[in-house]
Amino acid sequence: MSRKMLIKPFRSIESAATATHNWRRRQILKAGASTLVLGLSVTAPRLAWATSVIGVRVWPARDYTRVTIESDQPLSNTQQLLQGPDRLVVDLSGLDLDDALKNLVSKITPNDPQIQAVRVGQYQPNVVRMVFDLKGAVKPQVFTLQPVGSYKYRLVFDLYPAVAPDPLMDLLAQTERKQQQLDARAAMHDSAPPAPPSTLAGPNNAPAHDNSDAFFERYAQNDAGAATPGASAAPSVPRPTPLVPPATILPRPKPAPKPPVIAQSNSGDDSSDQADDNYGFTTPKTSKGGTTRLLTVAIDPGHGGEDPGAIGSAGTYEKHIALDIAKKLRAKIDAQPNMRSMMTRDADFFVPLNVRVQKARRVGADLFVSIHADAFTTPAARGSSVFALSEHGASSAAARWMATKENSSDQIGGINVKTADASVNRALFDMSTTAQIRDSLRYGGFVLNEVGEINKLHKGSVEQAGFAVLKAPDIPSILVETAFISNPEEEQKLNDDAYRDKMANAILKGIKRYFAANPPLAKSRMT
């Protein structure tokens, strides 16, 4: 009996242990299953709504309107262009309709050249639909950008008008209006006799008496062919051939350029179209009763749109400073009877570096000036600078650093690499000539002297580096750093309207002195 009793408890303990083990196992399995179900229920929505919109921005411009959607992860999208009426339908996958996307509606302004309005809604679970009501036919470009600088992932919609505005046609219309004003003014006043010319200082010397106004008076009377006595008559680079749209840019400039002649001789003598032995240039030809063409200056306000440029400690954006100085310079140039200007951008939008060069060449610009207000790694850096292109490396470590920073503008501003013809761009940028660099240094020297009259100079001579925006092969080109926005004192200067006006005036004076010392050669007739 006792044996049975000994065995029985043993069996009971074994059974109890097994039952306990099985119970615990079932509990663990239940807990695991519950955790899995709970995890799936939590994870599924998180996976569906994992992408968050950081910001939505709209950059309207006559050239094109850009819509940027910035997110913490890449966005998946589909789009279709519809007609009757014109509209662009965009579906964004993996998103829930949030305040940032809703605010897109209020960001469309009445003066947007491309977009009439936009509608945004939750089209399907996890899908947000945007419908852009358009003012006309557009050619949209949609592309994504990887994180760079302070930006995360960006989805970009560039809405180009079906018929792109031509800067040359705009310039010709502007010039026609100006010529009518000049003709009316000439009918009212007799021409005053030109003042006797005086010697101009060299580009890196203290400026002597400025006789550029006297030069322009003679130039208006078709006497530009005679160089100013005492001035160096260094040959200029060839004048650019007006370009076709960027997609069909020729890789090399034509030896017989055909830029626009705004006013031409009445004599019917085409001998001025014959190239001389100096780079195949044309020689100025004047005639009694003829009029002269207007000198064209391409003004390039740096940065813009998605690319703010440098930002000062007080929150000043370089792109706004550059645009304001450029507008002031444009007004001053257009007020000159023998000059006209073209701006690569006239509002807050981004222009790729190669497009800036193409625009200047399209209008046959005589000179190109890019305006900036850059920053350096230390706030102690100060002073204004003028840069020209270099074929053989930068003239200083600071110049190299600035060129690298400025050349990164395309990555920050955002370009569609699928549409960029790398071979064409490389060919364009490899055509820069020694003559262009020599004339750019001379041109920059005159501007540097004038800028030095209103602000301390960072360097006493024109610096050189591989700035992509200065690589027009046939246009003397400079980049002006008006001041260091990273220096608190100079940032304060840049925020002073009077200082910006003085800077624009200094650049104009340098341009006029360069033209007076290097009389522009005649351009041949363009049909």
Radius of gyration: 32 Å
How many DSSP-defined strands? 14
CATH topology of the largest domain: Aminopeptidase
Helix/strand order, N-terminal first: HEEEEHEEEEHHEHEHEEHHHHEEHH
The strand line-up of the biggest sheet is: 10-9-11-14-12-13
Structural class: alpha/beta
CATH architecture grouping of the largest domain: 3-Layer(aba) Sandwich
The amount of beta strand, in percent, is 15-25%
Low-confidence stretches: 1-17, 35-49, 195-208, 223-235, 240-291
The CATH superfamily of the largest domain is Zn-dependent exopeptidases
Largest sheet: 6 strands, mixed
What's the end-to-end separation, in Å? 128 Å
> How many DSSP H or I helices?
12
Mean pLDDT: 76
- Percent helix: 25-40%
